[in-house]
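ugh ok fine here u go
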Amino acid sequence: MYNTSTLKVQIDMKGESMFTDIIAIMPEQVKGKGIYSRIYKEDESILDQRTPALFLKNLYEEKGKSKKQMDKKIKATYQIYRNIPYVIDANQVFFPFKIRNTPFAENNRAFINVKYVSKIKDTTIVLVSGEEIQTLSNNKSLIQNRNLAKALHLEEILVKTLERESSMRYVMAYLRKEGYPR
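structure:
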């Protein structure tokens, strides 16, 4: 029998609950400290000491992936070299957009989970909840970034589905070999 208390909560590197999906990761200036990440989840908002890009890089590492390897794969497959989405898993694919003006380019980008984007209106991202996020990116780049992220999201879902199907075929073959009925 499984211990139900361990099944209910998954813990990440910083001890935050990773059970709910992340909707968006926004840079936030903390006076006297620097750029932190404001992480918006389905049920809460968390301030993290890491920058948005570092937070996503650490999410990659938690999943056993490498940002450099994923970028290489995306560049080779889609011929895209800038604003590459972060493909964490089948539920979390983030695309970047410009949210603020700063002298440091890495501190002016926010990231949003493509799963929660309903549509793009001019320079505004409309979420499935109806909330709107004003951006400094132009309409064309927002649409291109969203389309690429959506394609990668669907590709990740397809890969997971094929893995499950392959696993099921293996289990069924094993059960037949052991003499279990169909």
